Amino acid sequence: MWVWSGSPPTRTPTSRSAAYGTVFVKYQQEWSTICGAGFSTDDAKVICRSLGYGSGWVVPFSLSYFGVGTGPVHVHKMECRGYEDWIRECPSFVWSQSLCVHHLDVGVFCYDGGLELRLAGGSNPDTGVVEAKMGNVWGSFCDADFDDFDAQVVCRQLGYVDGISTSGLAARPTPGPMWHIRLDCLGQEHTLQECRIRFLNGTCSRSSAASVRCFNTAGFVDDALKALLPADCGVLEEASDQFIIRLAKIRGGSHPTRFNSPWLASLRSQKGHLECGAFIISEDYLITAAHCFNRGGVLNFKVRVGDHNENFREEFEEEFDIEKIWIHENLNAYTFLDNDIALIKIKREYGRGITFGPRVKPVCLPSSSDSYEDLGDCIIMGWGRVEEEGQTQPRPNEVEIGIIPDDVCESRFLGGAHNYSSSSVCFGGIRTKGEACNGDSGGPLTCSTSGRHTAYGVFSRGLVCGKVPAPSVGVRMTKFLRWILEKIRN
Predict the structure, then answer these.
(1) Which position among 65, 188, 206, 207 has the lowest Cβ density within 10 Å, counted as fewest Cβ atoms?
(2) Residue 149's closest CA among 206, 111, 195?
(3) Superfamily covering domain 116-218
């Protein structure tokens, strides 16, 4: 067995301690590749062990991330448990000619050397450039896409409680080499060796090193944001005795009552046509998907709240022009619709913003430390189509959804490491064949916790609605809390 990379990064850990590339296995004197159907971290661990590496840092790559192989594909799937010494011990490993094509070839990154961290060049011991010792060499990480999720893990590994990225604020020269590794942590990991990584093909100067500020207390972003947003968020009115309406679909879903989606808003053209969904977080601010503004800016849109049926003008319904739109600065930076989030500030009328009541309320935002692994009672809602060629709906629809593990979504549905990042959350309909569809973009993915509804995601994209049984992708809200805070506070 061996691994090969067609375009290795400029600087990685030394070859004795690391291996990376497309995986080849030898069967009957012929080298062949492994099909990437459901390729997991446990599979990658066994491959690295078979290559003579430990399990210090193992990252799976699917869908020919390092380039396509040649020859036959003799292994279709492995389904390893992670503790096997050799790939032949994995439950589903079978030598056979596979129908897989080479764009499904799997790759790995194996590193069994130590990983020490330190901060350098800062005026305070808790601030500085992140330096990592790999292969007995101290080097720094490029600040390309280095974010708060990555900073939290760096600081945690250094013994702090929390941290933020300070990359991009000023040039920070570093004397050592630059590791051309792009960290892609989710913020919950305890060490960097639990994080996914990507490789940088371009150059990164020594003045562009990733840097952090670490803290011994947690929650400062959460506390600052909560101080600016309504405390009475995410609580529904009791509607059981007032309206019981269970009809139609989001796609495979049902109509919510007038009282169980009070934060849902719509982004419309000046002529009233539905463009996207949105959701209320305060009397002045709403959140939606950034790609909703591909066709225009502030003057092209208006916001409607309190709308349960667009065929009728209702008592709680209000419309506002838009004062300002913040589109995330790194939209599409790493992959298609990466960082697909926008913040809207409405233009107040007669000195007041959105009027809150039983049918118009703000939704809560999550805490930066919230995990997506155990979320339940989650729904997605919007006015989108119920069929790909159909029309948007006059009333919003909702469907219960489940959160899909990142590695499953990345390897099976979304084009592998090329098309998935820590800004994304993957979800799909449960109990029904429901899914989000065209027109639902910008709508909230909410989950009920402790009697309150919290927006954990923003619907961003999916495959062809009603045609392909695959999950949808939303924006992972916990990654953008500091971004929202900075826009509102300023």
Answers:
(1) 207
(2) 195
(3) SRCR-like domain (3.10.250.10)
Which pLDDT value is given to residue 251? 43
Instruction: Show the 3-state SS of the chain.
Output: CEEECCCCCCCCCCCCCEEEEEEEEEECCEEEEEECCCCCHHHHHHHHHHCCCCCCEEEEECCCCCCCCCCCEEECCCCCCCCCCCHHHCCCCCCCCCCCCHHHECEEEEECCCCEEEEECCCCCCEEEEEEEECCEEEEEECCCCCHHHHHHHHHHCCCCEEEECCCCCCECCCCCEECEEEECCCCCCCHHHCEEEECCCCCCCCEECEEEEECCCCHHHHHHHHHCCCCCCCCCCCCCCCCCCCCCCCCCECCCCCCCCCEEEEEECCCCEEEEEEECCCCEEEECHHHHCCCCHHHEEEEECCCCCCCCCCCCEEEEEEEEEECCCCCCCCCCCCCCEEEEECCECCECCCCECCECCCECCCCCCCCCCCCCEEEEECCCCCCCCCCCCCCEEEEEEEECHHHHHHHCCCHHHCCCCCEEEEEECCCCCCCCCCCCCCEEEEEECCEEEEEEEEEECCCCCCCCCCEEEEEHHHHHHHHHHHHHC
Query: What tokens appear for 149 in the block?
Result: 């999720």
**What is d(CA 199, CA 184) in angstroms, rounded to the nearest whole number?**
10
**Architecture of the CATH domain 264-489:** Beta Barrel (2.40)
2-111 fold: Mac-2 Binding Protein (3.10.250)
Q: Which residues, in sequence order, are CB contacts of 240 under 8 Å at separation 6+?
A: none
Average model confidence (pLDDT) across the chain: 81
- Tokens 């690391």 belong to 18
Query: Are 317 and 306 within 8 A, CB to CB?
Result: yes
| Fold match, 2-111 / 116-218 | yes
Looking at residue 228, its amino acid is L
For the segment 143-190, what is each residue's pLDDT rounded down to a tens digit? 878 999 999 999 999 999 999 999 766 555 667 788 888 899 999 999
Task: Identify the bridge partners of residue 397 per DSSP, sorted by sequence position.
Answer: 382
Angle, nearest 10°, between helix axes 481-489 and 220-228? 50
In angstroms, rounded to a whole number, what is the distance separating the alpha carbons of residues 34 and 1?
A: 11
| pLDDT of 252 strictly over 50 | no
Highest mean pLDDT: which range of 10-24, 96-110, 160-174, 375-389? 96-110
Whether 9 has a pLDDT exceeding 60, the answer reads no
